Amino acid sequence: MRSRSALFFIVHCLVAVSGTIKMDYPNLVNGSVGKDLIIPCSFRVIDDTLTGEATVVWWKSTAYTGPVIYQCSNNCSKSDGRYSFAGNITEKNISLKISMVSFTDTGVYFCRIERSDKFTSQGIVLQVKVPKELRRIYVQTNEQGERWVTCEVFGDPPPNVIWTQPNTVNPSEILNQHGIYSSSSSVPASPNTNYTCQIDLEKQKVALSIYNQESGTLAAACNERVYITVIVVLAVTLGIVLLYLLCVLVNLFKRGHNKPSENDDNVYHNYPRLPDL
Ligand SMILES: *[C@@H]1O[C@H](CO)[C@@H](O)[C@H](O)[C@H]1NC(C)=O
Ligand SMILES: *[C@@H]1O[C@H](CO)[C@@H](O)[C@H](O)[C@H]1NC(C)=O
Ligand SMILES: *[C@@H]1O[C@H](CO)[C@@H](O)[C@H](O)[C@H]1NC(C)=O
Ligand SMILES: *[C@@H]1O[C@H](CO)[C@@H](O)[C@H](O)[C@H]1NC(C)=O
Ligand SMILES: *[C@@H]1O[C@H](CO)[C@@H](O)[C@H](O)[C@H]1NC(C)=O
């Protein structure tokens, strides 16, 4: 708090010395890979009589000598690749928009306004993160034959996984593994227990649940759906066989009661007869 008031004091002194423009911007901006972001920057004209031509410059890495990533004068509306103007000069807003943020956007940014008077911001640090995600939950059996419930998450920095179900999870039994962006949290699975893992996103909590059914016997492996499928397949097969038998019976019945027609005769005797051979 003290350092912030000190900063304010310094900024006020700078305003007093330089005269007319004061800038507002954050020290730090967080961005997420693949998303768009706005680096805010605005100014206040202390002496409101000052108007006229305005030029906006954005540098990366260092002010004045670093690469100019965006520049416009007066009518600022153009975009330059992934950089576009998100402000409004009339409203004294010179914010910059970066589309499709990537890790290479990490760095320090400087905004500058030239309008009767000139002012350049201090560095605005952009941190790029990989958004947090709760990917999946599953039960697996390891080489020792133990069943574990695993919760897979994604993000950099990695999200913190909390097991909210069952309330008997022993924190010392939790096995956490960290990859580059994906990481996982595993707990030993007790039979017939519901497991829920949760992560905190900025504005909400997300959770996934899985029910670890009793395992080991064939009966347990065969769930209701398997039974129903087997029964349906058997029923259909039986139906087809019965239909076939019925057709055969009907044909036999017909043949037994109808006098054979000429046509039938042709069909049955259209082969070389013994005397012809
Ligand atoms: C940016 O992320 C850091 C953690 O990496 C956090 O401490 C900080 O509050 C975030 N700042 C903003 C403006 O979201
Ligand atoms: C500002 O620039 C845009 C695009 O270059 C143009 O269409 C528009 O007419 C300009 N506005 C003014 C007030 O010059
Ligand atoms: C400037 O414009 C940006 C983007 O429209 C907005 O996010 C920001 O709040 C504005 N800043 C001020 C001080 O109005
Ligand atoms: C900028 O702000 C002014 C005043 O609020 C508004 O009239 C104008 O339409 C805005 N310009 C753009 C490009 O949004
Ligand atoms: C497991 O817990 C979750 C979250 O409380 C719930 O939605 C789900 O119905 C439960 N499943 C079983 C089989 O109890």
TrEMBL record:
Record's keyword annotation contains Hydrolase: no
Signal peptide: 1-19
Alphabetical list of SMART domains matching this protein: IG
Top-level lineage group: Eukaryota
Pfam families noted in UniProt: Ig_2, V-set
Organism for this UniProt entry: Astyanax mexicanus
GO cellular component annotations of the record: plasma membrane
GO BP, sorted A to Z: regulation of actin cytoskeleton organization; regulation of bone resorption; regulation of osteoclast development
PANTHER family: SIALIC ACID-BINDING IG-LIKE LECTIN 15
TM segment ranges: 226-253
Keywords: Membrane, Signal, Transmembrane, Transmembrane helix
Record-linked SUPFAM superfamilies: Immunoglobulin (SSF48726)
Domain Ig-like: 34-121, 131-209
The protein, known as: Ig-like domain-containing protein
InterPro entries registered for this protein in UniProt: Ig-like_dom, Ig-like_dom_sf, Ig-like_fold, Ig_sub, Ig_V-set, SIG15
